[in-house]
Amino acid sequence: TSMVRADGVGPAAQFSGPNGIAVNSAGLVYVADSGNNTIRKITPTGAVSTLTDANGAVIYAAWIYGVAIDGSDTLFVSAPYQNTISKITLAGVVTPLAGLANTYDDRQGSVDGTGTAARFNQPRGIAIDQAGSCYVTDSKSHTIRKITPGGDVTTLAGLSGGSGAADGPATVARFYTPNGLAADNSGNIYVADSFNNEVRKITPSGQVTTLAGLAGLYYYQGGFVDGTGVDARFFNPRGVAVDTGGTVYVADSGNYSIRKITPTGVVTTLAGSGGWPGGSADGTGTAAKFRNPTGVTVDTAGMVYVADSSNCTIRKITPAGVVTTLAGSAGQSGYADGTGAAAQFLYPSGIAVDPSGTLYVADTFSYTIRKISPAGVVTTFAGTPNVSGHLDGTGTAAQFFSPNSVSLDRTGNIFVTEDAVNNPLSRGNTIRKITPNGVVTTIGGSSDYFGSEDGLGLAATFNSPAGITVDSANNLYISDAGNNAIRKGVLAGPPLITAQPSSQSVAPGGSVQLSVTASGIPAPTYQWFFNGSAFSGATTNTLSFSSARTTDAGDYTVVVTNALGNITSNKATLTVSSTPTTTPGGSGGGGGSISGWFVLALTLLGTARRIGTRENQA
């Protein structure tokens, strides 16, 4: 089972993929020689040998990764693809400490317990403290585990992000390679939980339930059964859509069918034959055939549209289940704009429809976003055809690595996930935004990195984001398939003024209040200006002061700013009207003149106000 392995001194020795390393008090170095599945020992003089047991036989351990050593020179090794931690004594005796070998299913996950009752998910790094306790980085569970000398395993830090099929609050629920997402009018999110063969529902409060389907031990243990709730069976559901009445449509990819779920969980088959090898046939209900449908969307009239991926076509299904081919020709993969069967696609995956009936398609392997009119006219909306890359820009000047899913907000912006699994370079892991006029920007993730970090914009990281949807409150939901998680983003952007300040007219001494209403994420700040000069201290969305004077008359504006930009409001003009002239003495008719003393008093009062301060007026 060895690869390149040679004992010897210095450069004469050979290793194959060494990973973990530990040193004892005598200066002996122990190395996890992963490619050779062995433990190697190096003396202070550089002499390399392979660890053997009491009979002189080489000790093999399946793809060991981490190694640590305690005060009695007992070695502890991690085997990430066996999901075990073992001990090796100086005499070469190997004993299991924790975990159960050959539990390859990811959903063994992160289970605390003693010895073989515990479960790990690719344990890698390992360390020993002075008390003999062992600490392990359980990599795919995203946790730090602690093992006592007696083999008791607990989770020291982190929350297991491993796959699973648990319902419950957000921090308890588990998914297994979630894909398509859809949002209803009440803020509920529906998830095609692909490897659990289930359709899940997430309420606005984060409570996760299973709407239909039943998770099996392995994802390929799906089925094709209509029924209610857990009595229904799916096989690798990939796409979901929801109509205005709360009915959910599912692209049941492994069953080559489109399924329908009522709000109470009753599952029926809308179209497709429900079994391998599928095909491409228009017709009604089960007479129609699909091959690996992955994307599904529904318009306001109840028409369902399907990205029939392996057939490289876009299909249309009426509410009665009548299936026709809208664009593309089965078996004719490629890239070509055109009408109906003259158009060509290269593995279309995601699909979305706008209120006018225009479709947008993530054409994964032509690296483009395609646009289809209600009459079936296909054009390229964004992305450079047949060129894989990551470049923001407008229309065909932009580049995508592997567009996978698309969703539309209420103002016509398109959001796209790039799933690194679909790209031969394993690059993508980004969320892109396309404006209605085709301007493409990156709003989340990095094409060069994967991870699970939350953050603003490009500071966030993803691991093969698959599905995407936008709810009515402009929240973005992403099925982060490689992290077995559903991520939520509030769409960041420059400020937008939704209510402008209004012009006003007041009498001298009257009160003034000018207001602006604006939105933006991050939250905006405000600065008011009077005749083009900053108004000191006026830094809220409302400017108010009392005892208006004629010198307060003029133009007022406010600049609204956040980290992503700024916007200036329209001018609001303040008019301070003059005081009407009155005649002292007598009632009605007649008048005498204003006394000199009265004129002098008014003059002195006006002078005093002009040179006075404006404190506390903003």
Provide key terms for this protein:
618 residues; mainly beta; six-stranded mixed β-sheet; five-stranded antiparallel β-sheet; 1 helix; 3% helix; globular; disordered C terminus
Compact description:
This protein has 618 residues and is mainly β.
Q: State Rg.
A: 34 Å
Share in β-strands: 35-45%
User: How would a textbook summarize the main sheet?
Assistant: 6 strands, mixed
The helix tally amounts to 1
Helix percentage: under 10%
How many E-type strands?
Answer: 51
What multimeric state do the chains show? Answer: single chain
Distance between the termini: 81 Å
Shape: globular
Mean pLDDT: 85
The helix/strand class is mainly beta
Low-pLDDT runs: 104-108, 580-618
Structure, explained:
With 618 residues, the chain is mainly beta. Helix content is 3%, strand content 40%. It contains one helix and 51 strands. Strands 43, 46, 47, 49, 50 and 51 form a six-stranded mixed sheet that branches. Strands 1-5-4-3-2 form a five-stranded antiparallel sheet, with no helix packed on it. Strand 49 and strand 50 form a beta hairpin. The longest helix is centred in the last third of the chain and has 16 residues, at 596-611. The radius of gyration is 34 Å and the shape is globular. The model is unreliable at 104-108 and 580-618 (pLDDT under 50).
Write the layout of secondary structure elements.
Layout: E1 8-9, E2 18-23, E3 29-33, E4 38-42, E5 47-50, E6 67-69, E7 75-79, E8 84-88, E9 94-98, E10 113-114, E11 123-128, E12 134-138, E13 143-147, E14 152-157, E15 178-183, E16 189-193, E17 198-202, E18 208-213, E19 227-228, E20 237-242, E21 248-252, E22 257-261, E23 266-271, E24 283-284, E25 293-298, E26 304-308, E27 313-317, E28 322-327, E29 338-339, E30 348-353, E31 359-363, E32 368-372, E33 377-382, E34 393-394, E35 403-408, E36 414-418, E37 430-434, E38 439-445, E39 465-470, E40 475-480, E41 485-490, E42 493-499, E43 504-506, E44 512-515, E45 517-521, E46 525-530, E47 533-534, E48 542-545, E49 554-562, E50 565-568, E51 572-576, H1 596-611
Parallel strand pairs: 43-51
Antiparallel strand pairs: 1-5, 2-3, 3-4, 4-5, 6-7, 7-8, 8-9, 10-14, 11-12, 12-13, 13-14, 15-16, 16-17, 17-18, 19-23, 20-21, 21-22, 22-23, 24-28, 25-26, 26-27, 27-28, 29-33, 30-31, 31-32, 32-33, 34-38, 35-36, 36-37, 37-38, 39-40, 40-41, 42-45, 44-48, 46-47, 46-49, 49-50, 49-51
